[in-house]
Automatic annotation (TrEMBL):
This is Ammonium transporter AmtB-like domain-containing protein. It is a multi-pass membrane protein. The keyword Cell membrane does not apply. Its main location: membrane. Pfam families: Ammonium_transp. One of its GO terms (cellular component) is plasma membrane.
Length: 459
């Protein structure tokens, strides 16, 4: 045996499947690109021009901070040995001995598992930020990210996925509850504590670049291939089905949302299309690999209509919703669509697909067959939704109250008038003479006063 063969044996143990490993790394990268650059571009372009830099930076900062917290303590809190039924023991996920061993799922290294679950955690925090754009103090956001990840996300992940008290009862294939319901409820709760945008911003908040917004949305849509396709931790039949179902549901939901806009408002909205795409992607997530394609299409019809109604009709009529300034409507696109997908998964999941995904010892009641199985499972799904909602609302409130004792949650009124330039000394477009410069401009690219102008040099 030559040296290259020996090296290959050492780097590829018998338990590892190279095809699964390659797919898992690819899927994880696709999920990461949903956040960076996907949501960075989407947030930077869907907001008013003066908030583009701050909105994009909130996403970029969260991605970096979550990674460090994840490998230092949060991964083990989410998927490690049990501390209490709600959370695992904190610990480092950095040692070679840990990362190069076989993961708890699939024939891939633990490093794949840590990396994959990190990008899930990161996008959850970034989605939450969509409720807070246009007024949250960036320094408060810097504190909020590690605290919320540690105290809220890890509990949801461990309870549903990581050997917690709900794992044997809840169907959440890729995060309808752990990611989307959590981000929607936490974002709405944090928006209450941070307070609203300026009234002028709340009443008139046009996107500064719709084409870029569509580019960011495209990263989200195609990146969802890894989001749902990577959850089996294998390049298998369930992964293939999950990917097809994901895109069927998203496309159906988008078309239904646009149709609703055209019927009611007589115009097709590009922003509405993005919202419909998003609700479809969220709705299919808890059941992507365990329902039939016809069920994915049905979920698309419901995710394009029910969240549309809660956002476009109920939100405008409800004093409760009007009292909270949820900038991008994250509650509707993620919390409502996430619960909808979770409940529908309890009804529509197929027993044979559940067995292929989770094994023969799965305890989901739906595997028992008959009409009683889906009804009982839907009850479990509802209990899971109530727990995730209550935990996130309570813990997010406590975090916001704690941070408010250290730094203001909301930028001051003068800085809110200015936006990015006040927060970071930078603006999204470095254009001169556009009529929107402010007297308090802090631009770093301003020409130094000591350099004489061309006219002065020729006098």
């Amino acid at each position: 045996m030559n040296s290259s063969s020996v090296s290959d044996v050492e780097s590829s143990p018998q338990w590892m499947n190279k095809g699964d490993n390659a797919w898992q790394l690819t899927a994880t990268t696709m999920v990461g690109m949903q956040s960076v650059p996907g949501l960075v571009i989407l947030y930077g372009s869907i907001v008013k021009r003066k908030w583009a830099v701050n909105s994009a930076f909130m996403a970029l900062y969260a991605f970096a901070m979550v990674l460090l917290c994840w490998v230092l303590w949060a991964h083990h809190m989410s998927f490690g040995s049990k501390l209490i039924p709600l959370v695992g023991k904190p610990g480092f996920a950095l040692s070679e001995g840990f990362l190069l061993n076989r993961s708890r799922f699939g024939k891939v290294p633990m490093a794949d598992y840590v990396y994959y679950e990190f990008v899930f955690a990161a996008i959850t925090v970034i989605l939450l930020a969509g409720s807070l754009l246009g007024r949250m103090n960036f320094y408060a956001w810097m504190l909020f990210v590690p605290l919320w990840l540690t105290l809220s996300y890890t509990v949801g992940a461990f309870s549903v996925w990581g050997n917690g008290f709900l794992e044997e009862y809840i169907i959440d294939y890729a995060g309808g509850y752990v990611i989307h319901l959590s981000s929607g409820v936490a974002g709405f709760t944090a928006a209450y504590w941070v307070g609203p945008r300026l009234s002028s911003d709340r009443q008139h908040f046009p996107p500064n670049n719709i084409i870029h917004m569509l580019g960011g949305a495209g990263f989200l849509w195609l990146g969802w291939t890894g989001f749902n396709g990577g959850s089996p931790f294998a390049a298998n039949l369930i992964a293939s089905l999950a990917i097809l179902n994901t895109h069927i549901c998203a496309a159906t939901s988008l078309l239904v949302w646009v149709s609703m806009d055209m019927v009611v408002y007589k115009k097709s909205s590009v922003i509405g299309a993005v919202q419909g795409m998003m609700t479809g992607l969220v709705c299919i997530t808890p059941g992507a690999g365990i329902v039939d394609p016809w069920a994915a299409a049905l979920m698309g019809v419901l995710s394009g209509s029910i969240p549309w109604y809660t956002m476009m009709v109920l939100h405008k009529k409800s004093a409760f919703f009007q009292s909270v300034d949820d900038t991008l409507g994250v509650f509707h696109t993620h919390a409502v669509a996430g619960v909808l997908g979770g409940l529908l998964s309890g009804v529509l999941a197929r027993a044979n697909l559940l067995e292929m995904m989770y094994g023969t010892n799965v305890l989901y009641s739906i595997s028992g067959g008959g009409i009683g199985g889906p009804l009982k499972q839907t009850g479990y799904q509802l209990i899971g939704a109530v727990f995730i909602t209550a935990w996130n609302a309570a813990i997010t409130s406590l975090i916001c109250i704690f941070i408010s004792r250290i730094v203001d949650l909301r930028m001051n009124e003068e800085d809110l008038e200015i936006g990015d330039d006040a927060a970071h000394g930078e603006e999204v477009y470095a254009l001169w003479g556009d009529g929107q410069r402010t007297p308090t401009s802090l631009r770093r690219w301003q020409m130094p006063q000591t350099i004489p102008s061309i006219c002065q040099r020729h006098q």
